[in-house]
Design goal:
Length: about 475
């Protein structure tokens, strides 16, 4: 059996678990055991685990009996003990490795399914049932699927950054709009149209893989209220992640819950179908990379991982901004906090102004988020500077935010016209004990209390007045 590698170069265990693993840790053992009955689910979850967790699973996978905890611990160096215990804790919370102070053994259901996923065999259809070719229609090419997925995904992002700006972007389906609102990425106030929130702008800073999972996690949270079987939903997503790109699969063996998901997954660009009633589906790259580290949108000019790493923004000390891009989505994002002045085939010129920043702040975007976006997408030439962004620009953006936060309004009651200084001090001390005093003035013999504290203060004054009579 191979030893557990916990040397300094191998202990670079990811401190932050995948968003989906955190969600799965909150589920009951019964739910996870049902999920582990599907080989595709076990393989997908195995992919999402950290390097050390994966190695522990592989060390135990082919053992027919449990191994002593002390035997496993003997393979761990002193430097790797903390990482080892963290890995065991993660596997325990996922019920992959049940807690036992004496012996270690994988969950039987998980072990059986993962073995089947690795070695093949079985007739569960866990990895999808390939559709038979009818000769009438040609399977879409990879380029076609990438274009389709990119168009669907950027429609969602375009709507987020363009709504409420006076433009009329292509509107996603009602299901997508509801998901954006429930996830807090967009919101409407006083019956107005949906507008991007601070969380929505932070969402745009993430790579497409993280964006997709953020929406899918909200989709999972909504499964119960939509009377959908959570295990079926997860199993379908995991099945899609193990399918082959540009290959058609039959939908006839899907459960009612999974069949109901097809419309939503089409709206997100995760699957492709010729028409809604089609008997087969074709996973796009968004689906096949759900549990992979490969970029989900390699053909994107503005949302792909490589494009984000490259950077396209040059910011000068005079607040002028040059964006070397012809991507409409990037331009729309910049328009949230930049006053755009000129557009050329491969260049957008603008300036960061007090008005443009205040408009962004009014939409819930913070100064730190603006600075973070500029830093993340800085042009390679800018990265030679230390600091990367001009300090004067960073400071000014934060000062404009402070202008917005100088005055805060709060509802409450003003207490005045006290008969004597003693009465004023007595009531004020009582209000301070309740921690409801927002402002006070001893010279004017008055103070301002919060709305929540008014019933108690009024009752106290009335009781004191009645006692004097």
């Amino acid at each position: 059996m191979p030893s557990v590698q916990t040397a300094s170069d191998a202990v670079s265990v990811e401190n932050t678990s995948h968003l989906l693993l955190i969600f799965l840790e909150s589920q009951s053992q019964t739910t996870l055991t049902r999920l582990y009955q599907k080989p595709s689910s076990c393989l997908s979850i195995f992919r999402l685990l950290g390097p050390l967790e994966r190695q522990l699973v592989m060390n135990l996978l082919w053992l027919e009996s449990a191994i002593l905890v002390t035997t496993m611990a003997a393979w761990v160096t002193a430097e790797g003990k903390k990482a080892y215990e963290t890995a065991l804790s993660v596997l325990s919370r996922l019920h992959i490795l049940p807690q036992n102070p004496v012996k270690l053994a994988l969950n039987t259901t998980f072990k059986t399914s993962l073995r089947q996923a690795i070695t093949g065999g079985g007739a569960s259809g866990s990895f999808g049932a390939p559709a038979e070719k009818d000769g009438k229609h040609q399977t879409p090419s990879i380029d076609t699927l990438d274009t389709y997925a990119l168009e669907r995904w950027e429609t969602i992002l375009h709507y987020m950054v363009s709504s409420g700006t006076g433009r009329n972007p292509t509107k996603p389906s009602q299901g997508v709009l509801y998901l954006l609102q429930r996830s807090g990425l967009m919101a409407s106030s006083h019956g107005s149209s949906l507008q991007i929130t601070s969380s929505g702008f932070q969402f745009l800073l993430h790579d497409p893989h993280a964006q997709l999972w953020e929406l899918l996690l909200q989709y999972l949270h909504m499964a119960e209220e939509r009377r959908m079987d959570l295990v079926e939903v997860l199993s379908f997503l995991f099945m899609l992640s193990t399918m082959e790109l540009a290959r058609e699969y039959s939908v006839e063996h899907l459960s009612p819950t999974q069949t109901a998901m097809l419309e939503d997954l089409r709206d997100y660009g995760i699957i492709w179908q010729r028409k809604a009633s089609s008997k087969c589906l074709c996973p796009t790259r968004l689906a096949t990379t759900l549990t992979s580290s490969s970029p989900p949108l390699p053909t994107s000019n503005g949302t792909g991982t490589d494009a984000q790493t490259q950077g396209f923004i040059v910011l000068e000390t005079n607040y002028r901004l040059y964006a070397y891009t012809d991507n409409p989505l990037r331009t729309a994002v910049l328009n949230l906090f930049v006053t755009l002045k000129s557009r050329f085939p491969n260049l957008v010129v603008g300036a960061i102004t007090r008005e443009s920043v205040k408009k962004a702040l009014a939409n819930g975007i913070t100064a730190d988020q603006i600075i973070s976006y500029l830093t993340t997408h800085a042009h390679p030439q800018m990265r030679k500077n230390k600091p990367l962004l001009p300090v004067t620009v960073q400071d000014q953006i934060r000062l404009w935010e402070l202008e917005k936060n100088r005055v805060k309004s709060q509802e409450g009651y003003l207490y005045t016209a006290f008969a004597s200084q003693a009465d004023y001090d007595y009531v004020l001390n009582y209000a301070k004990q309740l921690d409801v005093v927002l402002w006070e003035s001893s010279t004017r013999r008055c103070f301002f209390g919060s709305l929540e504290g008014h019933p108690n203060i009024r009752g106290f004054i009335e009781r004191r007045a009645a006692g004097k009579q």
